[in-house]
Amino acid sequence: MNSAILEFLNYTNNYLEYGNKIDLKIKHTFRVMRLSETLAIELNLSEEEINIAKIIGLLHDIGRFEQWMKYETFEDNLSIDHADFGVKVLKKDNYIRKFNKDDKYDDIILKSVKYHNKYLLPKNLTKKEKLFSNIIRDADKIDILYLFTKGVLSIDVDKEFSEDVYKALINRKNVDRKSLINKTDKLSISLSFIFDINYKASIEYLRDKKYYDMIIDIYKKQSKSKIFKEQLEEIRKTINDYMEEMLEC
What we know:
globular, 12 helices, 2 domains, Hypothetical protein af1432, mainly alpha, 63% helix
């Protein structure tokens, strides 16, 4: 694993000149790697599988660095799908071998990287592919929520949630980006993450860290809209009730 980390740092060193956003993405990567390890341990995976989960965490955003260099944005809809591009990076000249000498996990690693940011996983994944894809999806979402609590990520809210987006949240639906209408709606993506979390350990982590309460409090303070504040309180209750129900199952 140490050699994989060194190779990742060697790769990202080529992008450090492009500013603070690169450093933030590197730090995000290592937090996600550690979260992936934690989840894999909680799921009682083997030592070899835990190592693969860590490698996937390390590689999940490898497409981000070229994305920022070329487009100066991490918005996929304004540039490229960073996950799909990450797969291209790893396939080029068999670069994946620099991170894992054994090729028996290549499909799992590549598919986990490819699908970590997608709205839904494809139905044709194997049991193992789905397992590792869900680990990285949980770990990535958890750290994105952490970044919102620290103000590293933020949304410029300008009004209340649009009706369909608000209904989706109250009905415990994972919000699709295609349904967004206004700036405020962008916040619904992260708020709805909880409804796409796969493991109890992930939900327990989010509950104990109180990330959702922190995010909702931040945006209640930012907004002057009474309707938006009322929506946030209903969403808070929906999320907290959902987490408790999932943990009781």
